[in-house]
TrEMBL record:
This is Cystathionine beta-lyase. Belongs to the trans-sulfuration enzymes family. Its EC number is 4.4.1.8. Its cofactor is pyridoxal 5'-phosphate. SUPFAM superfamilies: PLP-dependent transferases (SSF53383). Coiled coil: none annotated. Pfam families: Cys_Met_Meta_PP (PF01053). Gene3D superfamilies: Aspartate Aminotransferase, domain 1 (3.90.1150.10), Type I PLP-dependent aspartate aminotransferase-like (Major domain) (3.40.640.10). Keywords: Lyase, Pyridoxal phosphate.
Length: 403
């Protein structure tokens, strides 16, 4: 059999297999963002190829760095959060790591809230152990008093609002003012609000990190992170770091996150409504001593939440009475039928995880002074199931195991 193609006698079959002569009609339009997969970016000429770093000549360089698909997501994320530039990373944790590597070197100091997302703490500890970075922890409610902790080599202050698991909402205004007075950069992990309910750049924060794995995706099926800035020189430094590290994301994953974006604000509103209803119900239960939901007065930083946030999301925690031991609390969580046991959140499914907070706060900032009968903590994520079923489920598991 000849390997000459029958339809085009001028080219051999294998060439047509690689470079078919296509005639695709123009004019197809749809709402979805095209998924541009690509490692090689094709230049029109050598002048374009050689114009490295000159954005007036070539915007696109290599599929690792950006594609029109990733760019669509970047622009949308920046618009929602009130920033100007976005970089995408393979996970929220990757976004946190990018901030550390872009702005810290050995000998530098970083201040981290004691209630920070656990893997962020692990990352800092690793930098301290292996790379000679100094990492110190501040009380989540430190506010203006953080000024006394800033040293000449302090380069970065992390914020998280609210903090992971224990949900304190920091006084971001006071912390940012103290940082600015000393020329220290501030970075916030703004995952909880999805950038919708808290606008970091309007508050003077320099860098925002999002785990897009959570609400932006909304599907519990894709991992991605973002670092957003409003300042071009900060962005360029982050971008360069991301490039030398070789970090990028797949266009297919961008497509999945882009699909989630259209419904994100209405999903958030639904999570908020349900979570507040369930949190209110929990305040009336005798098994519960504190409901750590930023929109409720029990939560440290409730006043800051009211001042700075336009809504709440679906994640909060409860503190059970100290008369319930760990085994009882574990049995309660395992008896829940509608709340799955698992990490991550932001999808449609509700989740519950018990935490031993006393082992998570080596800086000794837990429990807050004067908290009576504070026992075990359970973090709840309220998904999109009907809140009446979610309440009934909590009730049955409490009646079974918390007596
Ligand atoms: C989940 C989460 C992250 C990390 O996101 P991954 O994509 O899972 O790495 C970071 N910060 C917060 C507050 C999170 O909840």
């Amino acid at each position: 059999m000849s390997d000459r193609s029958q339809s085009d006698a001028s080219r051999y079959l294998q060439t047509l297999a690689v470079q078919p002569e296509l005639d695709i009609a123009p004019g197809f339009d749809s709402f979805s963002t095209p998924t541009y997969r690509g490692s090689t970016v094709v230049f029109r000429n050598l002048d374009e190829l050689r114009a490295y770093g000159d954005p007036t000549k070539t915007y696109w360089r290599y599929g690792l760095h950006a594609t029109p698909t990733s760019e669509a997501l970047c622009q949308q994320l920046a618009q929602i959060e009130g920033g100007r530039h976005t970089l995408l990373l393979p996970s929220g944790m990757g976004a946190i790591s990018l901030v550390y590597f872009a702005f810290l070197k050995s000998g530098d100091d970083v201040l981290v809230p004691d209630n920070v997302y656990g893997p962020n703490r692990d990352h800092g500890e690793w930098l301290a152990r292996e790379f000679g970075v100094s990492v110190r922890y501040y009380h989540p409610m430190a506010g203006a008093s953080i000024a006394s902790m800033i040293r000449p080599n302090t380069k970065l202050i992390w914020l998280e609002a609210p903090g992971s698991v224990t949900m304190e909402v920091p006084d971001t205004e006071a912390i940012v003012a103290a940082a600015k007075a000393r020329g220290v950069l501030t970075a916030i992990d703004n995952t909880w609000s999805a950038g919708v309910y808290f606008q970091p750049f309007a508050k003077g924060i320099d860098i925002s990190v999002q785990a897009l794995t959570k609400y932006q995706s909304g599907g519990s099926d894709v991992l991605m992170g973002a670092v957003i800035t409003a300042d071009e020189s900060l962005h360029n430094r982050l971008k360069r770091t991301r490039m030398v590290m070789g970090w990028g994301v797949s266009a297919d994953d961008c497509f999945l996150v882009l699909r989630g974006m259209a419904s994100m604000p209405v999903r958030l509103a639904a999570h908020d409504r349900s979570a507040r209803e369930i949190a209110e119900w929990l305040t009336k239960r005798p098994e519960v001593t504190r409901v750590l939901h930023p929109a409720l007065p029990d939560c440290p930083g409730h006043a800051e939440w009211r001042r700075d946030f336009t809504g709440a999301s679906g994640l909060f925690s409860i503190i059970l009475h100290s008369r319930f031991g760990r085994e009882q609390v574990d049995a309660f969580v395992e008896a829940l039928k509608l709340y799955a046991i698992g990490w991550s959140w932001g999808g449609a499914h509700s989740l519950a995880v018990p935490y031993h907070v006393d082992t998570m706060r080596p800086a000794g900032t837990w429990p807050p002074a004067g908290w009576e009968n504070a026992g075990e903590l359970v973090r709840l994520y309220i998904g999109l199931e009907d809140s009446r079923d979610l309440i009934a489920d909590l009730k049955q598991a409490m009646e079974q195991h918390l007596r």
